[in-house]
Each structure stands twice: as C-alpha cells, then as structure tokens.
Amino acid sequence: MPFSKLGLAKELQETLAKQNYSNPFPIQKASIPAILEGKDILGIAQTGSGKTASFVLPILQLFQGQKESKNRHLKALVLVPTRELAIQVNDVFQLFSSNLPTKLKSKAVYGGVSINPQMIALQGVEIVVATPGRLLELISSKALSLSELQILVLDEADKMLNLGFQEEVNKILALLPVKRQNLLFSATLSADLESINKNLLKNPVVIKVEEEEKNLDLIRQFAYLISEEKKGPLLRYIIKNESIEQVLVFVSSVHRADAVVEKLTKNGIEAFAMHSKKGQEARIRALNAFKAGKIRVLVATDIIARGIDIKFLPYVINYELPRSPKDFIHRIGRTGRAEEPGEAISLISPEDMHHFKVIEKKMGKIATLIDGNAIDLKGF
After folding, report:
1. What is the pTM of this model?
2. Could you tell me which residue, 102 or 79, shows the higher pLDDT?
3. Are 300 and 189 within 8 A, CB to CB?
4. Under a CB-based contact definition with an 8 Å cutoff, are residues 374 and 234 in contact?
5. How many other C-beta atoms can be found within 10 angstroms of the C-beta atom of residue 120?
6. What pLDDT, in 10s, does the model give residues 328-348?
7. DSSP letter at 4?
C-alpha cells in the first residue's frame, strides 16, 4: 500500500517522494489513518520502525487550514526522553512542513544548554518537542502555555519511565486540557506504562508491530576472551592493528565512557564520549565530526546511542556487554546495513562468558572466539 492510500495531502506525498519514501512501514500504515480520524493511539513498535513519521505526518495535516494559535500557545506537544531524540523528531517536523501551504513552526527544547535562547525562540511556535524537565522549566517561566493543546505525543514512553521521568510526566499531564488527542508510542508495554495508558488514552486504537529479526548475516562477529584489566590495551590494539578508522564503542556507564576516551586520547586515538553529562552543543559537534570521519572513535552508552544513526558504519565494539540479548542485537545492528558488511567485536571477561553464551543462543549466531590474553599488548 503506497502513502497515497493513507489520506495524506499531496504536498506531504510530494515531500515523501523527494525523500525516496515509497511504501509506508507497518506502524505508519496503521497509525496515520487513525490519527487523521482523531483517535487516540497506543503504538508498540521498536526504535527504527518508522514511528516518528507515523505521528508527524498526520499532525501536520490536521493543522492545515487552522487559524494561527495565540503566541506561545502550543497546538501539539511531543515528549521524548533524550535531547538527541528531541532534535531528531523536530528535524522530521521541519522536513515535512517545508512544502505545506499552512506554515507551522516547531522547536526542540531540552536541558543541558542555556534556557534563555530557547525561551526567545518559542515566539510563534505551535509544535514543541521536549524533554520533560526543560518543558516544566519553560512553563514555570511563562515561556509557553499548554492551555490550548490539541495533540499530545509520548514518544519512547518506556525509556522515559526507565529514566525516572514519571513524576515530571504526571505534572505535565495535570496541566493539559481535558479534550485532546493522545498518542503513546513505546517499544514495550510495562506495568508502569499500562497505568499511564489507562489514565491517558480514551478508547485507543492499539497497534503492535512485532520486531523484525535483524539480518545478522552481513555482520562478522568476533569475541576476544580477555581479563577485565586488559580490556583497555586490547581495545587500543584492535583499533590500531586493524587500522579501524570509524568505530562505535558501547559501554555501560558515563564513568566508563570517560575513562575509555581518556586512555584512547592519551594513546593518540581521536575519541569522544557521548553521554548525558556532556553539553548538547559538544555532542552535536562530535556526532557530526564522527559521521564525517573526523573523529575515529565514539564511545557511547545505550540511551545516548539511540540518537546515533549512521548508514555505513564498519565497526561496532562492545567494550562491556549490555544486560539483555535484545540490546546486544540492537547494538551490533548499527553495522551491516544497506547490504554493506560490518564487523562486531565483543570484549569478554571470564565473568561475562555465561551471559555471552545466552546472547549467542538468543541471536542464533556464534561469534569467532579469540584468546585475547595470548596477544602481546605491551605498549598498548
């Protein structure tokens, strides 16, 4: 079924065609007509399933022909868990609104940067993509109003709850007009999310898109058995010995990310840590530099890495394993895309081995095991 069958305006269809979008993803096929009909939505779909466009496109269409709202009075609010996702979603709004007859101004707002420029930039804005904490700051400063809000979107709702935003989300919900359309998107449906669903949504259309198995056949997998204290030297050895020019390294914590980057930099390897303690502008500059090949290594935590999308990424290294096999598959799925082969390397301590075997069983693939302790790491 093409996008033309979903009831979208010709201007939106033209922009979709220019961006080489041919057929809608399952979440888009199910969501777009229902949102255009004014229904509440509960959409369960994984990251990368196309859900951003599934709410951006109908929201833009629903506001066509409407009179301009009062200054700083929002028509639509999208709540997201991270700054990277706020920027990413706002970029999609701006892309698809560029060709519409009724111009709609959108803005991403998030913490970690000065609030004053964001307050000034909210002049005339009708659609805001926000992290919860910064939104509440802007509301308390009278920089925007939710009193005339027509549509609320909770995007990546499971991650918002995991990151401890539930209290802030509840404060925001208490400020909204009773009559509105609610769209909730999440990768999973937890007990906490079920509670929000019951209190938020009215007779929702429930859409559940099963996650497609990632094609791991293009990814060559290697696992180095190594003691914990030798992981740093081994990482530097692999990067230099394999002449790796672009690699995304996954770690489990902010502290570990900083420590790994410090050691890489001291050894002459350009690296940057991507985590919540870094300033937003610095993170954007680093991500752009990494995509352009100016930074060799990006060391990231799982949450921050959700905003990193690189079409041709040759290497992924798991410095530390994630908690779940699903997260492991998501990590290594950053390489081996667009029919291009990639390589995924995992550094496995003896304590990790049982967990790694569980991961291998879940994904149905066995990595080539290498004894890292047998490698001469002197000088690394």
Report:
1. 0.65
2. 79
3. no
4. no
5. 9
6. 888 888 887 656 788 999 999
7. G
